[in-house]
## 1
Amino acid sequence: MSLIEFADFSFKYLGADTLALRKINLKIERGEYLVITGPSGCGKTTLCRAINGLVPQFHRGYISGNVIVDGKNTRENNVAELAPIAGLVFQQPENQLVTLNVEREIAFGPENLGVEVNEVRRRVEELIEMLDLEHLREKHPHEMSGGEQQRVAIAATLALKPQVLIADEPTSNLDPRSAEIILDLVADLNRRDMTVVLVEHRLDLVSKDASRVILMDQGCIVADGEPREVLSMDLCQEIGVGVPKATQLYKRLRDRGFKLGRVPLTGAELATLVQEVKQR
Amino acid sequence: MILLEDVHFAYDGLYTALRGVSLQIDEGERIAIVGSNGAGKTTLVKHLNGLLRPDQGRVILDGVDAKHYSVAELAREIGLVMQNPDHQLFLDSVEREVLFGLDNLGYPKEEAKIRCARTLDNLGLEGLSSRSPFTLSGGERKRVALASVLATEPRVLCLDEPTIGQDALQKNKLAKMLVDLNEKGKAVIVVTHDIEFVIENFPRSVAMADGRIVADGPTNSVLSNDAVIERCSLTRPQLTETARCLTVCSQRFLRELH
């Protein structure tokens, strides 16, 4: 059984005129690293909310079809029941931070799920170490920079020990180096069997780690496959997906009859491929 | 036009954010401010419109010390779009949100309507004008916040992380709009982590670390300077990285030849 399964799932927010998701059919297997991308307003965030039950449990509206997460139907299980399975990091981390310091913030989720005190303490220490939060331990989340808040929100989500980490643009407030560090961490979690679902516009940063990319447009999934395959489709540019510069250059060279060994996703990969051609 | 002279600032007098920043911004410039989280970028731009006042040093607008102006007076000249749109949006329709600023700056109703419609159109928000900003997606809300300031066409436009949540098409539209305004003589300043957006659209870059400016110059040279990249937690633009790798390879090749 897939970890997450969308079956003909459609959703319309209360008061909205159009469907946010239209007949989504999607299976996500354990251990996958899935990147969801697509134009602004295409339904990416709604899809994330549908995995941990915020849609339809918190955000109400018209619904048809089903989402089954680890055997649980999100229509029938509340967010508290789904939270230990599917941990969601919001787009604006500030909107999910609720306590007065970082330690309490990380402890908040497991405490609410009734996790034993010593275990909560152990998780807090582990995550402070893992996300390099020691110097922020006593700090109020609203006194931190956007990037720091993002790291705290990730720690607070991981404290629930979810089976799948869903992150909605988790690096949007981070400087490029901190973004790399967070994404390396996510890739590492994925190597240690954590299923990852990541929403991202900056594909130059994430596509190298992903096992699969899904392209959404107007509430539908319009492409689904291996990153190199999806990102070299013309459809990407047509609907406004930010294709990495190295991939764009590959396509331009290909159109002029200059074929590189494979589709590059990073600047360094492109350099290696050009070197290979030179040596031939 | 704007001159910062040795500006120092500490939040609550305790948390030092700026340690002597000097910067000159001229009419018609397009400048990107880049640097690590907590480097002081946002603190710096909040000094431009008087939201923050220097503890030490001066901010000078057209030769006059900005301390003589209120935030409301500075807002006529310098428009600031904040990082989190939710800190800025408060009305119940997109249109009202955009008209609010125009109204406050005393634009006649007709002119305000025209400007509002044009700005919404330019930012791909034309279909959403009667929607409540709070029912929109994160990227759309960001554009509403941008629209509310862009519509007033201030002489200096200052945008904190304008590309967050924006897809490639929206980013291109935004860039085009900024270039158009710039060509009308407006100065445009962005704070951003989006290096590709910087290299494509901003001729001048200012790199910050630890409350100081560590580099200021043509974007190409700032973003290919290894020391700056390291110090400011930046990464090279992809094609700069490619060029660097190829240069390293050919140097190694040359060394082996000898």
## 2
Amino acid sequence: MQIVLTEEQRLLAEKGQAVEVVDSTTNQKYMVTIRPTFEATAKREIPEGIVVSRIALRRDLPELLSNKRLVGQWVAYHRNERIGISPSGQTLLKQCFDRDLDETEFYIGWIDSSELAEIEEIEDRRPLFDEDAHENS
Amino acid sequence: MKILNRLPVITTDTLAYVGDEAVRFRDAQIIVWMSITSRKTTELSPTTPRFPVILDTGHSRHFAIQEQHLVRWSGLRANSLPILGNIQNRDVEVTVLGANLWIYLNEPGRSTFTTKSFKLDSMQGVEVFPDRNNHPRLPLLGLRAILSNHLQLTVDSKTKTVSLSTPDWRDRIVRWFR
């Protein structure tokens, strides 16, 4: 089906509104909107400061995990420097911002074995057959 | 602190609206309402957009969302958030972005959510899925968010309600001796 919008419909779509179009073959009506351009899934490099900070965390993690009291707490690194350990990640985040660190210059990790994975895989839970597979939510 | 106080589980397919967009909640789903902000946001504004999220203990990370939902429902631009890493979901590379997550408190025993919220520690980031697979259909709040925030989740099958809370002093004492 080829969609041809009138000038009025194009203006409405550009304002973010859905416009009604009709398939001339089936007379089925459709509502169409402009598809926004997204960028998070476009390839973006992980900032070097975060990469270096994560490597420092992984380097220290076996030792941290051996201390039962620390397991489950958060730990912040600014490159090779450990900024602190806390039960609250938000506390560490505030410490990083109080030091005027850019968000790309530190990493706050969980003292948990999940931080050791180089590339973490998650369970694929996409349904094989889903009545909503082609619906928008 | 009680975050979810006897929140009813969805027991029949229900339509709800995020702005003017209809979304379907399914039978036996736990639906909470949340907001995402940049990590520099320390106070949540009453005008911050909120959206429904499935509390899904089968999801092994903190929080998953399709990019289109992040953009439309939270009002954030993905490139305004720092990229913390990537994870693999079968053939899909998923981007992990740094953001703050806020979960709204419900009125006790009801599905109505208040304006009060609880900020979750989400330092490991949120997973932003590409739109092409339409997955996850609704954002997911995963088990790691509950574990890493030391929260207690209770499902009461008799009343079909869910409670989520931070540990009180009794829980802390019990945990200390374990």
